[in-house]
């Protein structure tokens, strides 16, 4: 290899996680080699207990690995201290948790702006970005509310806005649409599609096929290992203007 | 599409082209655009079975047009259709047949079959998401139809996952 190219956004080498919570050790992740290139959208799927959440938590430094390597943007990350991980996350990673983790004694607007401000954005830029994201996610009128006053679906969208506020190099997400009704999911799909088109790298654990369908690639885990890793090819297009595949009516 | 046409005719008499337009308007682009030839063939059969009748309406400067209307017998058939529960959509699943039978041939690996099928479903889902975005948001029948297709697809994917868990 003589051609220098941009480093992978995420790269893992033989990543392993063994939980030891009394009793027998549990092998949650068993030797995962994964490479995510800048701008790629990767959906991570698989049954519950297959290691999906553990994997993305390790990629974000929220859980320590047992062995193996994690590289973020060309730099070794698995050997970082907790505080060094915190800095790396602030600079490069946005994370959407299954359970939101919003700060309750701050307004929705401040929750969303905070990561951008911590990441070094100007107050004005942070505000504009927050207004844009809350607007796109149908939350403009909730800006001054406290997270505790919001429904689960609203909190989940705020969490997504917060994760995207800093325009992170990598967005990591763990089931970010679990609490949404169909209208809200539509907003989230639109935003994810839009930031992805703008070059956002995304690694997302999801059961929701609507979200996974937006991805370039699907990685399937089973029992802590990758059993499938391939692009989602385009289907044969419908004839123009119609959608023959949606319904079949019988005469 | 016998009963769809009968339902439209029970509302008001119409000629073939009006029925085509009505179907397109109600279901939007979520519905495969009906073929006018197929509509006339179906109307012919409905007429033969006594469920509709037609009258020739004279038009100035044009050939007569045939306007169809629903008969009492047609109305009865329609009531019976509406009143009886509808079979679930999935009686047989071709993929499942492949999954069970292919390993016997020794040429297919179940894991690979499931993985390929998942990626195909996701691609179809992407298409549906695009279709929903392109479709008129105010056309509720079209949006609901697409959402129904999405829910079926999600169930297929969940079931695929169950099949895969069995291999672990």
Write up this protein.
The complex is a heterodimer of chains A (251) and B (168). Chain A has 251 residues and is an alpha/beta fold. Chain A has helices at residues 52-59, 82-92, 108-118, 123-136, 152-165, 182-197, 209-212; strands at residues 10-19, 26-36, 41-45, 67-72, 75-76, 93-96, 170-174, 201-205, 217-222, 225-231. Chain A has one domain (40-64, 81-231): 3-Layer(aba) Sandwich (Rossmann fold), CATH 3.40.50.300. In chain A, the strands form 2 sheets. A 6-stranded mixed β-sheet of chain A has the order 6-7-8-3-9-10, with helices on both faces. Chain B has 2 domains: 2-83, Arc Repressor Mutant, subunit A (Orthogonal Bundle), CATH 1.10.10; 94-165. Chain B has a two-stranded antiparallel ribbon with strand order 1-2. In chain B, helix 1 packs across helix 4, helix 2 crosses helix 3 (36-48) and helix 6 runs antiparallel to helix 7 (140-165). The model of chain B has no long low-confidence stretch (mean pLDDT 89). The A-B interface holds A 43, 45-47, 182, 186, 189-190, 207-210, 212-215, 218, 220, 222-223, 227-228, 230-235, 237-238, 241-251 and B 1-2, 4, 27, 29-33, 38, 42, 111, 115, 118-129, 131-133, 145-147, 149-150, 153-154, 157-158, 161-162, 164-165, 167-168.
Multimer state: heterodimer
What does the overall shape of chain B look like? elongated
Name of the level-1 CATH class of the largest domain in chain B = Mainly Alpha
Question: How much helix, percentage-wise, in residues of chain B?
Answer: 55-70%
Protein traits:
heterodimer; A: 251 residues; alpha/beta; Rossmann fold; six-stranded mixed β-sheet; four-stranded antiparallel β-sheet; B: 168 residues; mainly alpha; Arc Repressor Mutant, subunit A; 2 domains; two-stranded antiparallel sheet; 7 helices; 2 strands
Report a brief summary of the structure.
The complex is a heterodimer of chains A (251) and B (168). Chain A has 251 residues and is an alpha/beta fold.
């Amino acid at each position: 290899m003589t051609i220098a190219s941009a480093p992978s956004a995420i790269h893992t080498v033989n990543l392993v996680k063994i939980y030891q919570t009394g009793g027998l050790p549990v092998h949650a992740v068993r030797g995962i080699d994964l490479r995510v290139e800048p701008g790629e959208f990767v959906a991570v799927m698989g049954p519950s207990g297959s290691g999906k959440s553990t994997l993305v938590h390790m990629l974000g430094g929220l859980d320590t690995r047992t062995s193996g390597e994690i590289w973020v943007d060309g730099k070794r990350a698995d050997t970082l201290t907790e505080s060094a991980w915190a800095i790396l996350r602030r600079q490069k990673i946005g994370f959407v948790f299954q359970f939101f983790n919003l700060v309750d004694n701050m307004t929705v607007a401040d929750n969303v702006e905070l990561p951008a401000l911590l990441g070094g954005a100007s107050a004005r830029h942070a505000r504009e970005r927050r207004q844009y994201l809350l607007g796109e996610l149908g939350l403009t009128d909730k800006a001054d509310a406290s997270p505790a006053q919001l429904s689960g679906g609203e909190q989940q969208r705020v969490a997504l806005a917060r994760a995207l506020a800093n325009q992170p190099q990598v967005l990591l997400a763990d089931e970010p649409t679990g609490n949404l009704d169909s209208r809200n999911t539509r907003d989230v799909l639109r935003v994810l599609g839009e930031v992805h088109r703008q070059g956002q790298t995304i690694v997302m654990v999801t059961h929701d096929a609507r979200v996974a369908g937006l991805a370039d690639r699907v990685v399937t885990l089973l029992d802590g290992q990758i059993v499938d890793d391939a692009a989602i090819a385009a289907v044969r297009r419908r004839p123009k203007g119609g959608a023959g595949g949606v319904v079949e009516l019988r005469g | 599409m016998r009963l769809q046409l009968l339902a439209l005719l029970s509302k008001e008499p119409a000629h073939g082209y009006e029925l085509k337009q009505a179907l397109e308007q109600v279901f939007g682009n979520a519905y495969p655009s009906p073929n006018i030839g197929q509509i006339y063939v179906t109307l012919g059969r409905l007429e033969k079975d006594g469920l509709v009748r037609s009258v020739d309406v004279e038009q100035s400067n044009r050939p007569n047009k045939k306007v169809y209307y629903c008969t009492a017998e047609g109305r009865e058939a329609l009531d019976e259709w509406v009143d009886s529960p509808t079979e679930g959509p999935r009686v047989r699943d071709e993929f499942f047949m492949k999954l069970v039978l292919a390993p016997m041939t020794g040429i297919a690996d179940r894991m690979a079959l499931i993985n390929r099928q998942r990626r195909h479903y996701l691609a179809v889902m992407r298409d549906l998401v695009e279709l929903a975005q392109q479709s008129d948001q105010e056309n509720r029948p079209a949006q609901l139809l697409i959402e129904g297709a999405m829910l079926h697809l999600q169930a297929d994917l969940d079931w695929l996952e169950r099949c895969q868990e069995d291999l672990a």
